[in-house]
User: What shape does this take?
Amino acid sequence: MLKERISIVVNGVRYDLEVEAHKTLIELIRKDLELTGTKWGCGSGDCGACTVLMNGKPINSCLFLAVEAHDQQVTTIEGLAQNGELHPIQKSFIEHGAIQCGFCTPGMILSAKALLDENPTPSEEEIRGAIAGNLCRCTGYAKIVDAILSFSSLDRKIS
Assistant: This one.
């Protein structure tokens, strides 16, 4: 089986790996790196459960080949918490009851972080646009939008 050597930084840790040319980024993240916070949903880029940040931008890791991530910076949901402390966006989701089954939550939070990094005070319409690629079966999105709006209205640093 054809393998390619890649270097990738995931959650601040550099990995030098040999990966099969057909392996997707989600397979690398979940199976090889054992970071299971990124969820495997539809496998066709429709649900957003597999959303990660690549160089700060949300991508569907189920559609992205691992070899395409060579020399890139990837952030998974595990990379947001620092020193055992949840990221303020994660806390806002909890405080606002924006988590029910939790399956969509990692992708939602990462999409929200990417938006807030670019636009610290988005409108409700901008928030809804940013999370449009993340499907949620449980919440109806209202509490998710509330969590993001609430976080953005506080003058917090979101790094």
Observations:
- The helical segments are 25-32, 88-95, 105-118, 124-130, 142-153.
- The radius of gyration is 16 Å.
- The CA atoms of residues 65 and 123 lie 33 Å apart.
- Strands lie at 3-10, 13-20, 51-54, 57-60, 73-75.
